[in-house]
Design goal:
heterodimer, A: mainly alpha, 38% helix, globular, B: alpha+beta, Ubiquitin-like (UB roll), DNA polymerase, domain 1, 5 helices
């Protein structure tokens, strides 16, 4: 059948809508395959429970509100006289019941990741106005060497760990940084 | 052997490095005012100050103490506000069974040192980690407000 202009216009419109819809769907995942593995690690409860957008931390894989109604506090380290370090020592306790690592605390609100899709999280992660003025190289160092970040892979007790091993995460991170941090 | 400073006094204790500070205080130094409650930093009854910050001594290994100043309930009456807190606790009959009260007094004193006129919300944030099975919370709140209003 020969298509007249109106038919063609409708077809173009239809394909445009379908294309746009599929793009929207793809946005749930990172557009860059290099960021997707990082996204899966960063959104694991071991990372996300303290990268919250709330005035309190969370705990557990179910991400319930932290026990004892502890709060974020002005400096992200709890209330003035009920600091995170009141309970969280520099290392896990022997039986793993209470986790610990140096400078235990919440990430600042600007580094809260809850509710972000992969592309959004990637952009926020790189935004120097939100990430503590960190370059890609600074981000690499934070995520590969910071003792509180590394705790995510040695969380003690029966806590789960992120989907990539720590060395594999560093490899994926290096690949993403080397590519210029594509989102 | 560890050299630690407790209530202003240098002490030497013979303990394995992972022994919690709570048990060093109670067993080695016979300072039994600090109580064992849950052993998991969940109840607050073992609260002591480490460099002035309320800390759960049941999860702090002795090796982590170093040269930090430890202060316990035995010394809190030498602190002006600590003394006021203990007096108010007596006047208002705050304790019931009393087991958690060393921790409550340490937490309340730290709060009032930091903030001489705490709101109910400030009290909630500072005291939420100190559990009382007798439910003396209303009297604790009342005593803190009484000190703040009348004496600070």
């Amino acid at each position: 059948m020969k298509l007249n202009f109106a038919h063609r216009a409708r077809l173009v419109l239809a394909f445009t809508i379908i294309g746009a819809a599929s793009l929207t769907t793809q946005n749930v995942h990172a557009q860059s395959p290099l960021f997707q593995p990082l996204y899966e690690v960063l959104t694991h409860p071991r990372c996300m429970n303290c990268h919250t957008i709330t005035d309190f931390p969370r705990q557990g894989d179910e991400r319930r509100r932290h026990a004892q109604l502890v709060v974020r506090g002005a400096d992200n380290h709890g209330a003035p006289t009920l600091q995170c370090s009141a309970c969280h020592q520099d290392e896990n306790v022997i039986d793993g019941a209470v986790p610990g690592a140096p400078h235990w605390g919440l990430a600042p609100l600007s580094m809260g990741w809850e509710g972000l899709n992969a592309r959004e999280l990637c952009l926020v992660l790189k935004d120097t106005s939100k990430n503590g003025n960190r370059s890609l190289q600074d981000l690499f160092l934070h995520m590969s060497e910071d003792e509180l970040v590394l705790w995510g892979w040695t969380p003690g007790g029966n806590r789960t760990t992120p989907p990539l091993s720590q060395p594999d995460f560093v490899k994926a991170l290096q690949a993403w940084v080397s590519a210029g941090g594509p989102c | 052997m560890f050299n630690i400073r407790v209530n202003g006094v240098a002490r030497t204790v013979d303990a394995v490095e992972d022994k919690p500070l709570l048990w060093v205080l109670r067993e080695n130094l016979k300072l039994t005012g600090t109580k064992f409650g849950c052993g998991q930093a969940l109840c607050g009854s073992c609260t002591v100050y480490v460099d002035g910050q309320p800390t759960r001594s049941c999860v702090m290994p002795i090796k982590a103490v170093g040269d930090k100043d430890i202060r316990t309930i035995e010394d809190i009456s030498n602190e002006h506000i600590g003394n006021l807190v203990q007096q108010a606790w007596q006047e208002l009959n705050v304790p019931q069974c009393g087991y958690c009260q060393s921790g409550q007094i340490m937490a309340a004193t730290a709060l009032l040192i930091d903030n001489p006129s705490p709101t109910d919300q400030d009290i909630d944030k500072a005291m939420s980690g100190n559990i009382c099975r007798c439910g003396t919370y209303p009297r604790i709140r009342k005593a803190i407000h009484k000190i703040a209003t009348e004496q600070l």
